[in-house]
Amino acid sequence: MRTRNTILLLLVLPIAALAQKDKEKAIQSLNGKNDYYANIAQQIWEFAEPGYLEDKSSALLQSELSKAGFKIERGVAGIPTAFVASYGSGEPIIGILGEFDALPGLSQEAFVPERKIITAGAPGHGCGHNLFGTGSMAAAIETKEWLINNKRSGTIRYYGTPAEEAGDAKVFMVRAGLFDDVDAVITWHAGDKNNAGPNTNLATKSGVIKFYGIAAHAAGAPERGRSALDGVEAMNSMVNLMREHTTEPTRIHYVILKGGEASNVVPAYAEVEYLVRHRSREEVRSLWDRVVKCAEGAAHGTETKVEVEVQGGTFDRLPNEALSRAMHKNLEIVGGVKYDATETAFAEKLRLSFGSSGVPISSAAQIQPFGYSHTNASADTGDVSWVVPTGGMTAATYVPGTPGHSWQAVACTGSTIGHKGMMVAAKTLTLTAMDLFTDSKLLEASKKEFNEKRGPNFKYESLVGDIPPPLDIRKTK
Questions:
Q1: CA 224/CA 242 separation, integer angstroms
Q2: pTM (2 decimals)?
Q3: Orientation of helix 416-438 relative to helix 440-454, angle to 10°
Q4: Residue 281 in contact with residue 175, Cβ under 8 Å?
Q5: Are the C-beta atoms of residues 133 and 426 closer than 8 Å to each other?
Q6: Are the C-beta atoms of residues 378 and 206 closer than 8 Å to each other?
Q7: Angle formed by the axes of helices 4-31 and 129-149, to 10°?
Q8: How far is Cα of residue 358 from the mean position of the Cα atoms in its chain?
Q9: Please, which residues bridge with residue 272 across strands?
Q10: Contact assessment for residue 365 and residue 337, using Cβ atoms and an 8 Å cutoff
Q11: What is the rounded distance in angstroms from the CA atom of residue 336 to the CA atom of residue 262?
Q12: Residues in contact with 48: Cβ distance below 8 Å, sequence separation at least 6, in sequence order
C-alpha cells in the first residue's frame, strides 16, 4: 500500500519533469534563433549610439518587441529613448532590464585582434550593451511564448534603459515609479566570465563644477584678471589633499573639461567634472559635500565664482541571494561559451594586446562557483535593486581577461564570441523568469530577503534629488 509521502512524491515528480521539459524546449527554441538575434545585436553594434542619443537602437528594439506582441510605452520618465514593453496581465510581474548605449571614442573593427579604428573619435560598444539589450529582449520574447503555450497568467516586462554609461537613466526611471508594482527584476551584463553569484558594487555621485572669473591680458594687465582655471586647479589640489582623510574604498575621479581659450588670456571660464564612489551611498553623500566645500574654498581664495551642477548618482547594488541561486542553477543548465577554431585563434592573438591575465581562454566555457563578490565599478542598476528584488549575472561575451571599456572589448562585442555569450544570458534569463512565474516560494524568499536587507525604515531617496535627466546632449545632436 502506498504511503502518503509516496503519493506526494509521485505527484511532485511529474511537475518537476514538466518544468525541466519546458526549459529544454526554451533552450532549443533560442538555439534556433541564434542568427536572428545576432543580427539585431550587430545592427546596434554598428549604430554605436552614446547615452540619450540611442534613437536607432531604441527604435529597433521597440519594433522587434512590438512585432512579438508587446505593448510599448515610449519616452518614459521624460527620456526619449527610454521605454517599457509589456505582455500579459496580472501577477506576478517580472521585469527584465536591457541597455543599448555605447561609449565615446572606442571605434574599432569587429573580430579584429589589433587596434583598427573605423572612424576616429567615434563611439563603440566597449561595454557590450548591444548584446545586453538584445539578449534581454530575446529572453522577454521567449518567456512570453512560454506564457502563451502554457496558458499562464502574469506579466513580463522589458525595460529599455538608455544612458547607463554617463546618464544614469535607470535612476530617473525608478524615481518615476516605473518599478513600483514589479515583483522581481532579472538582468545581466557582458563580461569575461559566466557568473551568477550575488555581488555588490560602489555607489556614485557626479557633476560639473563651473568657475567664473574675469578675462584680462595675461601679460599686459594680469592684475585685472581673475583666473577661472586657478579656481579649478586650487579645487583639484584641495580634493587631492582630502584623499588622505577618506575611508576605504573611496574613489574620486576628475577631468578638466574646459580650461581657457588661449594661454595669453586669463581664463574667464573653466569647468571640471568630478565623480566620487564608495560602497556606502551615505558616505558618497558626505564625500560629495566635502568636494563641494573644496570648490567653494577654491572660489573664495581665487576671487572667482563657482556653480555646482549635479549630473548623476547611483546606489550601490543590493544583492539577492535567493534570486542569484536560482539564476546560478539555470546558468549551470545552459553552460558556458565554447569557441571554435577561428574564435580560439582570435582570442589568442587578442590576448597579446593586453598581456596574459592568468585566466585561460577555456574559462569562457566554465561556470564560476557560486559565491558573493564585490566590484569597484558602478551602475544605475543599483537603484533598481533597492526598490525591487533584483538578480543579475554576467556572461562570457569577451575573451577571458579582456578589460571592459576597451577597444578589445569592442572587437569582442561585435564578434561571434559576443553573440554566443549573449545567448547564454538570454537562455539563463528565460529559465529564471519561468521559475519566477511557477515557483511562488522563490518569489516569497526573494522578497523576504529583500525586505530584511533594506530594513523597516528604508525610503528611497535618489542621490540626484529632483534634477531632470541630463538631456542637453540631444540639443547638439
A1: 31
A2: 0.93
A3: 100
A4: no
A5: no
A6: no
A7: 130
A8: 26
A9: 209, 256
A10: yes
A11: 55
A12: 102, 107, 122, 123, 124, 125
Task: For the chain, report the end-to-end CA distance as a whole number of angstroms.
Answer: 77
- In angstroms, the CA 294 to CA 161 distance is 34
With beta carbons less than 8 A apart as the criterion, state whether 131 and 422 touch.
yes
Cβ burial of 74 (10 Å; 0-12, 13-18, 19+) is middle
Contacts of 476 (CB under 8 A, 6+ apart): none
Q: Which residues pair with 253 in a beta bridge?
A: 275
- Angstrom distance (rounded) from CA 413 to CA 189: 12
Measuring CA to CA, how many Å separate 408 from each of 45, 118, 188, 353, 354? 14, 14, 20, 8, 9
- Side-chain half-sphere exposure of 438, counting CA atoms within 13 A: 19
383 — phi, psi (to 5°)? -65, -40
User: Given its phi and psi angles, is residue 430 left (phi above 0), alpha (psi -120 to 50 degrees) or beta?
Assistant: alpha
> 3-state DSSP call for residue 157?
strand
**Burial status of residue 8 (CB atoms within 10 A of its CB: 0-12, 13-18, 19 or more):** exposed
Distance CA 451, CA 106 (A): 41
Find the length of the chain: 477
Angle at the Cα of 115 from the Cα atoms of 114 and 121, rounded to 5 degrees: 160
The whole-angstrom separation of Cα 277 and Cα 150 is 46
Give pLDDT tens digits along the chain (477 positions). 445 555 444 444 455 676 889 999 999 999 999 999 999 999 999 999 999 999 999 999 999 999 999 999 999 999 999 999 999 999 999 999 999 999 999 999 999 999 999 999 999 999 999 999 999 999 999 999 999 999 999 999 999 999 999 899 999 999 999 999 999 999 999 999 999 999 999 999 999 999 999 999 999 999 999 999 999 999 999 999 999 999 999 999 999 999 999 999 999 999 999 999 999 999 999 999 999 999 999 999 999 999 999 999 999 999 999 999 999 999 999 999 999 999 999 999 999 998 866 889 999 999 999 999 998 889 999 999 999 999 999 999 999 999 999 999 999 999 999 999 999 999 999 999 999 999 999 999 999 999 999 999 999 999 999 999 988 877 755
CA distances in angstroms from 339 to 28, 186, 346, 413, listed in the order given = 19, 27, 10, 14
